[in-house]
Each structure stands twice: as C-alpha cells, then as structure tokens.
Amino acid sequence: MPLKPAVREDRQYRPLGVVAVGAAVLFAVVALWVVRAPGRLLPGDAGLHHWSVGHRPDVAAALARAITDTATGVVPYALVVLAGLFAGRTRRRRVTAAVGLALCLAVGQALRFGAMKLIARPRPDAVYWAADASRWSFPSGHATTAAMTAGLLIAALYLRGSPVPRSSVVLIAAWAATVGLTRIYLGVHWFTDVVGGWLFATAWLALAACAFLRLTGRRPAAR
C-alpha cells in the first residue's frame, strides 16, 4: 500500500520522460543517418538548399539576417533572464528563476556544441552563404538556441502563475521556428541541421523540465 502513491507520482512525470527519450532517440537516428549518408546529405537537404539560393532577393535576405541575429550572442540570455525576473513574485524567486533559466540555456548550448563537434558535418558551400557562419553544421546552433530560448520563455510565463494567453505561446514558438528556417534560407545550414536542432532542444527542455518538477516537488500542469 505505501508504494502506490509513489507509483502514481512517477506516472505524472511519464509524459515528460517520453518526450525527452523520444526526441533524443529521433535526434540520434538523424545524426547516425547523417554520418552514414553519402555526401552527408539526407533527402530534401539539397533540394531545399538550391531552392533557397534561387529565391533570395536582397530584401528577403536582409530580413532573414535580422531574424537570425535574434538567436545568437547575448540576446537569448537577455531574453531568458528577463523572463526569469518576470516569472518570480519575490526578489529571491526572481533571481533564482533568472539564474536557473540562463544556466539551463548555457548547459544546453554546451551539450549542443559537443554534439556538433562530434558529428562534424560540413556546411553547404560557403559561396552560397548570405550570412556569416563558422564551425560545423549539425545540429544548427541558431535553431537549437532559438528553440531552447522559446521553451524557457514559455516556461517562465507558466511559472508566473497567471493565465497565459495562447497567442503569446504561438508567437514565441513561431519566432523560434522562423529562426531555424532562416538558417536554411541564408544557405548556411541543411534542412536536417535545423530538424536536428529542434529535436535536440526538445529533448533537453523535456529533461530539464522533468528534473525541475522533481526537485521542486511541483506537479506537471494539465495545460
């Protein structure tokens, strides 16, 4: 009898665990496919790359660069710190949330960099680039960072405890998705680099959320 409550408690976190494991497995499958594929290209990579290069007027490229720059450097950290300060209702909780969200983003970026270096997938030919890029290609750093930042921003909204407008969640998610697509459009990443970044971010955020809920004793919200 004493074991039943613990079992029920574990089941509350099972969806997060399923998401974390599922996204991690899919990421590993795509990564292995990339490593073993001829020319390191998967179906759709070359076609979407060539379409982007052939449909890239100067105005559209400038807009894509402006969007892609919102997911690099200090910008993502500034966003999650501000979100953390918003999430807490006391000074201590605001500081804790801001530090926690920034740390989650930093660790996620470090893990992503390690995966990128290990897989070492070459980028598309630099002659087609419409933005600066460096290092390896898979998974996309901008796509991963934007997705992690978006997830942390949405989490901060729910941590606040106030009703969260669905439009806010949609706009934040749309921004992250758009950042990822700009990397393909600017010719610096393959399509599967961006997909890999989204999968990596999903796995990391689900794992971090599960750890947070367990450490704090909170229950996953039905929302």
What is the topological layout?
Layout lengths: L2 H34 L8 H10 L3 H11 L6 H13 L3 H29 L21 H20 L5 H20 L5 H26 L7
Would you kindly provide a written description of the structure presented here, covering whatever features stand out?
The chain is an all-alpha fold and about 220 residues long. It is built from eight helices and no strands. Helix 4 packs parallel to helix 6 (about 140-160). The longest helix has about 35 residues, at about 5-35. It starts with a helix and ends in a 7-residue tail after the last helix. The model is unreliable at about 1-10 (pLDDT under 50).
Question: What oligomeric state is this?
Answer: single chain
**pLDDT averaged over residues:** 90
Which structural class do you get from the secondary structure elements? mainly alpha
Shape: globular
**Strand segment count:** 0
Give a quick account of the main beta sheet: strands, pairing sense, barrel closure.
none
Q: Can you give the helix content as a percent range?
A: over 70%
- The SSE string, one letter per element, is HHHHHHHH
Range of strand content: under 5%
Compute the separation of the termini in Å.
30 Å
Q: Measured on Cα atoms, how large is the radius of gyration?
A: 19 Å
Low-confidence stretches: 1-8
Put simply, the count of helices is: 8
